[in-house]
C-alpha cells in the first residue's frame, strides 16, 4: 500500500519496542517515544517551545517470557516538555518518574492497561510515558504469543522482536490535518554471531493507513488501511490485504476521551488484528502533538493578549497539568482557557 500523503509536514511521532534475549533466558524490553515537531514554536509554560525534538521518553524492563510477566521497569526522559523553571515552581515532567517502578510484577495480559493507568495515568505521571507503556505491554504480549517457531532460542544479546509505529501529521490545506500511519513488526530467527543479514529474518507484519481528521468536529474522517504478512518464502510476492472496510466504521468517532475504548471494542472479537488495533490506538495521542504545529498564529495572539502560561493541557491529564499544580496556579485571566476534561 503506497501512502500518497500530500501537504505541509507538521509533526512525526515515532515509537518502538525491542525485545532482546538475555543469558538467563529472560528478555530485555526497551521502548522509545520521540516527538519531532516540524515547524513553528509554541508559547507554553511561561517559555517558548521550539520545533525539533519536543519529547524523548524511554522505558527499560525485564520480561519473563514463560510467565509473560514484566519483572522490572524504569523510565528515562532525556527530552521533556517542561524543565524546572520559575513558572513551573521548580516542577518538571520527570518528577513522578519513580512511579513507573511500581509496575514490576505486572502480567502482560488484558489487565496490564488498567494497571498501567492506575499507577502512572493522569496526574500521577506523564501522558507520553503512559502511551509508550501501553504500546510496550501490548507489543511484548503480541511478540510472545506470535513468535515464529524455531529450533533453538536466540543467543544472549540477540534480538527477538521489534515493533515500530510511525505517525506522520501533515496539512493538506490550511486548517486541515491528515495522518499517515505505519507499523512494522519484525521477528528475528536464531542465527550465529556472523551470518548473512537475511539468515536472521523470520517474519514481518506491516500495517499502513491514511486517516483524515475532521477538525471542526474533532473526529476521525475517512480512513483506509492495508496490511501485509511475510515470511522467507513469501518475501517477494506476499500481497497487501485491504483493511479499509474494517476501519471505516471508526469515521465519526471522537478523538477525545473514549476513542481508545471505541477502537478496542471494534477489534475485541478479532484477536489476530492486534497489530492493526495497536497502531490505531497510537493515532489520538499523536494527533495532540500534531495540533501543536498548527500554531503559527499563536505567538502573535500571545503577545497581544499577554499570555503567561499559554496553551495548556486538560486539567489532570498529566503531572504538569494536574489540578493544584504550579502551571495551573500560574495561569492568569489573559491566558487561553484550558481544554475541558
Overall structural class, as computed from helix and strand content, comes to alpha+beta
- Proportion of residues in β-strands: 25-35%
Using only C-alpha atoms, the radius of gyration works out to 21 Å
Q: Give the strand tally.
A: 12
Major sheet details: 10 strands, antiparallel
Which of globular, elongated, flat, extended, rod-shaped describes the shape? Answer: globular
Number of helices, counting only DSSP H or I runs of 4 residues or more: 8
Series of H and E elements: EEEEEEEHHEEEEEHHHHHH
What count of structural domains? 2
Mean pLDDT reading = 94
Strand order of the largest sheet: 7-6-5-2-1-8-9-10-11-12
What does this structure look like?
The protein is an alpha+beta fold. The protein folds into two domains: 178 residues, no CATH class; 110 residues. Helix content is 21%, strand content 33%. It has eight helices and twelve strands. It has a ten-stranded antiparallel beta sheet with strand order 7-6-5-2-1-8-9-10-11-12. Helix 1 packs antiparallel against helix 2. The longest helix has 20 residues. The relative contact order is 0.16. The mean pLDDT is 94.
Amino acid at each position: 500500500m503506497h501512502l500518497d500523503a500530500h501537504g505541509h509536514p507538521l509533526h512525526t511521532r515515532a515509537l518502538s519496542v525491542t525485545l532482546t534475549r538475555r543469558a538467563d533466558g529472560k528478555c530485555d524490553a526497551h521502548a522509545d517515544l520521540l516527538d519531532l515537531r516540524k515547524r513553528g514554536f509554541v508559547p507554553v509554560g511561561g517559555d517558548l517551545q521550539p520545533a525539533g525534538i519536543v519529547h524523548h521518553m524511554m522505558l527499560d524492563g525485564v520480561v519473563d517470557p514463560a510467565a509473560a510477566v514484566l519483572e522490572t521497569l524504569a523510565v528515562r526522559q532525556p527530552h521533556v516538555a517542561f524543565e524546572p523553571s520559575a513558572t513551573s515552581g521548580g516542577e518538571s515532567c520527570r518528577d513522578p518518574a519513580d512511579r513507573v517502578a511500581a509496575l514490576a510484577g505486572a502480567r502482560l495480559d488484558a489487565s496490564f492497561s488498567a494497571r498501567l493507568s492506575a499507577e502512572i495515568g493522569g496526574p500521577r505521571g506523564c501522558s507520553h510515558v503512559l502511551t509508550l507503556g501501553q504500546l510496550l505491554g501490548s507489543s511484548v504480549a503480541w511478540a510472545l504469543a506470535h513468535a515464529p517457531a524455531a529450533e533453538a532460542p536466540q543467543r544472549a544479546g540477540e534480538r527477538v522482536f521489534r515493533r515500530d509505529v510511525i505517525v506522520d501529521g501533515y496539512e493538506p490545506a490550511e486548517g486541515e490535518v491528515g495522518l499517515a500511519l505505519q507499523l512494522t513488526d519484525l521477528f528475528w530467527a536464531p542465527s550465529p554471531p556472523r551470518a548473512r543479514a537475511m539468515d536472521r529474518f523470520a517474519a514481518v507484519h506491516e500495517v499502513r493507513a491514511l486517516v483524515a481528521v475532521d477538525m471542526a468536529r474533532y473526529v476521525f474522517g475517512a480512513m483506509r488501511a492495508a496490511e501485509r504478512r511475510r515470511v522467507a518464502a513469501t518475501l517477494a510476492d506476499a500481497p497487501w490485504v485491504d483493511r479499509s472496510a474494517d476501519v471505516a466504521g471508526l469515521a465519526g468517532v471522537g478523538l477525545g476521551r473514549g476513542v481508545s475504548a471505541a477502537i478496542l471494542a471494534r477489534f475485541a472479537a478479532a484477536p489476530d488484528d492486534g497489530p492493526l488495533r495497536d497502531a490505531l490506538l497510537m493515532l489520538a495521542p499523536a494527533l495532540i502533538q500534531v495540533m501543536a504545529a498548527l500554531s503559527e498564529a499563536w505567538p502573535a495572539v500571545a503577545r497581544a493578549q499577554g499570555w503567561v502560561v499559554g496553551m495548556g493541557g486538560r486539567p489532570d491529564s498529566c503531572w504538569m497539568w494536574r489540578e493544584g499544580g504550579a502551571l495551573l496556579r500560574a495561569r492568569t485571566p489573559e491566558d487561553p482557557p484550558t481544554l475541558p476534561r
